[in-house]
Specification:
Blueprint: E1 26-32, E2 39-45, H1 47-55, E3 61-64, E4 69-72, H2 75-87
Antiparallel strand pairs: 1-2, 3-4
The structure holds zinc ion.
Length: about 90
């Protein structure tokens, strides 16, 4: 399926979410494990799903390989992630 590029007159950079902007295939960020309190590097795949989760306010899970536990990242971490997406 070819992604549809929507051109909005005068919309400038605000149309990025709706156009076929080339996003990286994966993105790394840090999240602190609530169990061992250590910062864990997270690797996220499927950036469109990630963006959807951010926009729709769905929980985004992080994982600790030591504790083998998942947890939803905090609002601060979500904000950082959103920023990463825009600056990557
Ligand atoms: Zn842990």
């Amino acid at each position: 399926m070819t992604p549809k590029i929507i051109h909005l007159a005068g919309s400038g950079t605000k149309a990025w979410a709706y156009s076929d902007v080339r996003l990286p295939d994966s993105l790394g960020f840090m999240s602190t494990c609530p169990n061992c309190n250590d910062a864990r590097a997270q690797q996220i795949y499927g950036l469109r799903i990630l963006v959807r989760s951010l926009v729709d306010n769905q929980p985004i899970e992080a994982y600790c390989a030591v504790c083998k536990e998942f947890w939803p990242i905090t609002a601060n971490e979500r904000a950082e992630l959103a920023w990463l997406l825009l600056t990557e």
